[in-house]
Design goal:
Layout (H helix, E strand, L loop, with lengths): L2 H15 L2 E2 H10 L5 H4 L12 H4 L1 H17 L6 E6 L5 H10 L3 H6 E6 L3 H10 L8 E3 L10 E6 L8 E6 L2 E9 L5 E9 L17 E4 L1 H17 L1 E10 L9 E4 L2 E3 L9 E3 L2 E2 H11 L2 E2 L3 E2 H7 L2 H9 L4 H15 L8 E7 L11
Parallel strand pairs: 2-3, 2-5, 3-4, 5-10, 10-14
Antiparallel strand pairs: 1-7, 6-7, 6-9, 7-8, 10-17, 11-12, 11-13, 15-17, 16-17
Helix pairs in contact: 5-6, 9-10, 12-13
The structure holds S-adenosyl-L-homocysteine (SAH).
Length: 362
């Protein structure tokens, strides 16, 4: 089955049942069991559609390993805990994280490694990447299936892949943005009958001009709340890294990436990656609703520098060739520079019992 078949499948569904929500479109494109984007391929790296931070440099996962190790020590070195990653991609972050965290063998002895991943193709890649790791991963389809107990959880570029809904301000209030068919049978955007409950509207939306778009991400919020509940009940820490905004803002952030370039969102269903910016304000509120304490988020650049990115780069480059040192300097730039991933990406830490988590402020 090819992805143009997915376009046809979507068109047939719209002809039969009417326009679909953006959330429905996103979920189908990314996770259709036969032709979904993540289900069928390994999208990362120079040959794929995009490159994530752990694929830029091992330093990223190593520094997150340092965060996890410190969190484990701060928890009083529990005898057992669940080390969870949501959406592990190629498994690179976890492999690098475990190398650093293994500096304390008790960490590995106490940890159960839980990978939450829906894609069979990526599960295979993750198992291969972690072949020599000190822990054997157990795979889960959903976070809710992960066993109980203290939790140390990381998620990098996971929440941006979860479906969003969009609402458009019209003369008749906020109405849900939908995807239907044009007269020529092509997928096209339209406005549906669904409405946003006024009580859900943030103050930023008052006086918004017609045509303004507001996004919601109920699937992401439900997971954040569940993480908050687990953290409050069993203790632990969570680290959520993604691009997005710290304060609720209006605007259309839905984007498609196809072979490293921006693409029309409706052009290649199932063949292009679809993402949306994460609303960290709402995500933090959901986690707090579950009982956890969100700490003030940091930008990725600041987070990595506080954890010792420059020191790690220096150590990694010492005694290496000029070319290797140059590549390490490039990686530092990409991960932390404001015009690269440094400020667009945000890091949210959640604490189970409200205690401090280095390197975050209270
Ligand atoms: N964290 C990785 C990969 C990010 S891409 C990195 O930084 O490189 C998003 C990942 O989340 C992929 O592994 C994808 O298969 C997975 N994923 C997307 N939607 C998911 C869902 N609903 N449940 C579980 N995993 C999901």
């Amino acid at each position: 089955m090819t992805a143009s078949v997915l376009k046809e499948k979507l068109a047939a569904r719209i002809r039969a049942h009417g326009p679909i929500t953006i959330a429905d479109y996103m979920a189908t494109c990314l996770a259709d069991p036969e032709v979904g984007y993540y289900i069928t391929r390994d999208p990362f790296g120079t040959k794929g559609d995009f490159t994530t931070a752990p694929e830029v440099s091992q330093m990223f996962g190593e520094l997150i390993g340092a965060f996890c190790l410190q969190a484990y020590l701060d928890l009083g070195e529990p005898d057992s805990f669940q080390l969870v990653e949501l959406g592990p991609g190629r498994g690179t972050l976890m492999a690098d994280l475990l190398r650093t965290a293994s500096l304390r063998p008790e960490f590995v002895e106490a940890a159960g490694l839980c990978l939450v991943e829906t894609s069979p193709a990526l599960r295979k890649v993750q198992a291969k990447t972690l072949e020599k790791a000190p822990l054997v991963p157990v795979f889960y389809d959903r976070f809710a299936d992960v066993p109980g107990g203290p939790l140390i959880l990381v998620a990098n570029e996971f929440f941006d892949a979860l479906p969003i809904h969009q609402y458009v301000k019209t003369a008749d209030g906020w109405r849900e943005r939908m995807i239907g068919l044009s007269e020529t049978g092509e997928l096209c955007f339209g406005v549906g009958t669904g409405r946003l409950d006024d009580t859900e509207l943030p103050p930023e939306t008052q006086n918004a001009p017609e045509g303004t778009i507001l996004e919601t991400q109920p699937a992401a919020n439900a997971i954040a709340q569940e993480i908050g509940t687990r953290l409050a009940r069993h203790g632990g820490a969570a680290l959520i890294i993604d691009y997005g905004y710290l304060k609720t803002a209006t605007g259309d952030s839905l984007q498609a990436l196809y072979k490293h370039t921006h693409d029309d969102v409706l052009a290649h269903p199932g063949e292009a990656d679809l993402t949306a910016h994460v609303n960290f304000e709402v995500l933090a509120r959901a986690a707090r609703g579950g009982g956890a304490t969100p700490l003030p988020p940091l930008e990725q650049g600041e987070f990595l520098l506080r954890l010792g990115l420059l020191e790690r780069a220096g150590a990694l480059g010492s005694d290496k060739s000029h070319a290797v040192q140059e590549a390490i300097r490039d990686a530092v730039e990409r991960l932390a520079a404001p015009d690269q991933m440094g400020t667009l990406f945000k890091v949210l830490a959640l604490s189970g019992d409200g205690r401090a988590l280095a390197p975050f402020d209270m």
